[in-house]
Design brief:
The chain has 285 residues and is of the alpha+beta class. It has helices at 14-24, 37-42, 79-84, 86-91, 93-98, 105-110, 113-119, 125-133, 151-154, 228-234, 240-254, 265-284, and strands spanning 7-10, 28-31, 50-53, 65-66, 70-74, 136-141, 145-150, 155-157, 160-161, 167-175, 181-187, 197-205, 210-218, 225-226. It has three domains: 7-53, Uridine Diphospho-n-acetylenolpyruvylglucosamine Reductase, domain 2 (2-Layer Sandwich); 60-175, 2-Layer Sandwich (Uridine Diphospho-n-acetylenolpyruvylglucosamine Reductase, domain 3); 181-284, 2-Layer Sandwich (Enolase-like, domain 1), CATH 3.30.390.50. The strands form four sheets. Strands 4-5-10-6-7 form a five-stranded antiparallel beta sheet. Strands 11-12-13-14 form a four-stranded antiparallel beta sheet, sandwiched between helices. A three-stranded parallel beta sheet has the order 1-3-2, with helices on one face. Strand 13 (210-218) and strand 14 (225-226) form a beta hairpin. The longest helix is centred in the last third of the chain and has 20 residues, at 265-284. The protein is globular. It binds flavin-adenine dinucleotide.
């Protein structure tokens, strides 16, 4: 099948891209890495009237910008850069760990971090990392200027986000993870597939236990699932065995994975126990 006809606009600047989005509203789609959008067009799951290609906008690409507390990733940061970029390795270890789990090298070379956040697939690695770490998305529109949305408020339903049709994610900012422990586990049918179940975690290891804990499951709900009660439980633990026991007790009580086409709810619940135990070990030790 071929894509339905569409008009192609190459954005020359952020302002030009935003003006085009404003002019066409829900009829327009941003084209970033194309790794989700182009298959959807080819299958006619999506048939926008206009594609706004942002790949030549210099202000949306480049290296991460590191400030005192945050690392800002521009919209066109590719998945592959999360593996190779020295600032990501130094300051965003969770993303550095997660990136090799995203698809395959060819897709990682094209696909963008912000494109993945925009799609918001509930089995996707990066939205879960953004929620776990407390990232924030920088959105711009022609009509309303800039607004900042915490990742924990960005996902509102199954592949539905707070990004309006006339908005562009121009960057995502992650809190610096220097000195934090991070853990990442994923179980997929084959390497490179979306997760059956995964878990992204960050925490600070203090004198006796953990603080600032963020644990987010993916592949178990209609969006990334921040496991707040598990985070609170393990922050009361003094030892890793206590932390695992408390985490599993809260997990049994509070987490009920949804089945999908590839895996039943009970099977996901079983996988979730093992990824949780491993991530808690990573954070504690
Ligand atoms: C075979 C295959 C396997 C894959 N496996 C995985 C996987 O295991 N894990 C995973 O997470 N992903 C996977 N992907 C998807 C891949 O990560 C995509 O790159 C990503 O989901 C979308 O990023 P993109 O830059 O390609 O966006 P595009 O495909 O260009 O765009 C996707 C959507 O996001 C919107 N969008 C893009 N950028 C912005 C922006 N800056 N602001 C607002 N809206 C924007 C577009 O308008 C479009 O609606 C896979 C893809 C393929 C083809």
């Amino acid at each position: 099948m071929k894509a339905a006809p569409f008009r192609y606009v190459r954005a020359e600047s952020i302002a030009h891209g935003l003006e085009t989005l404003a002019a066409y509203g829900d009829e327009a789609r941003i084209l970033a890495g194309g790794q989700s959008l182009l298959p959807a067009l080819a299958l006619r799951l999506s048939a926008p009237a206009v594609l706004v290609d942002i790949n030549r906008v210099a202000a949306l690409s480049g290296e991460p910008q590191v400030s005192d507390d945050w690392v800002r990733l521009p919209a066109l940061m590719r998945h592959a850069q999360l593996i190779t970029s020295p600032p990501v390795r130094a300051h965003l270890s969770l993303l550095h760990r997660a990136a090799p789990w995203i698809a395959h090298p060819g897709i990682r070379n094209q696909g963008t971090v912000c494109g993945s956040l925009a799609v918001g697939d509930p089995a996707s690695e990066l939205p879960a990392c953004a929620v776990a770490a407390g990232a924030r998305l920088i959105l711009q529109s022609h009509a309303r200027g800039t607004r900042v949305v915490p990742a924990r408020e960005f996902y509102v339903g199954l592949m539905q986000t707070a990004c309006a049709p006339d908005e562009m994610i121009v960057a995502v900012e992650f809190p610096r993870m220097d000195g934090l422990r991070t853990g990442f586990r994923e179980v997929a049918r084959r390497r490179g597939d979306y997760a059956m179940v995964g878990l992204a975690g960050v925490a600070r290891r203090g004198g006796r236990g953990l603080t600032q804990t963020g644990l987010t499951f993916f592949g178990i709900g209609d969006r990334p699932v921040l496991a707040s009660s598990i985070c609170a439980a393990i922050e009361t633990a003094d030892t890793v065995s206590q932390a695992v026991a408390l985490a599993l007790a809260a997990y049994e009580r509070d987490i009920t994975p949804n089945a999908d086409l590839w895996c039943s709810g009970p099977a996901k619940k079983h996988i979730g126990r093992s990824v949780l135990e491993e991530v808690v070990h990573d954070l504690f030790q």
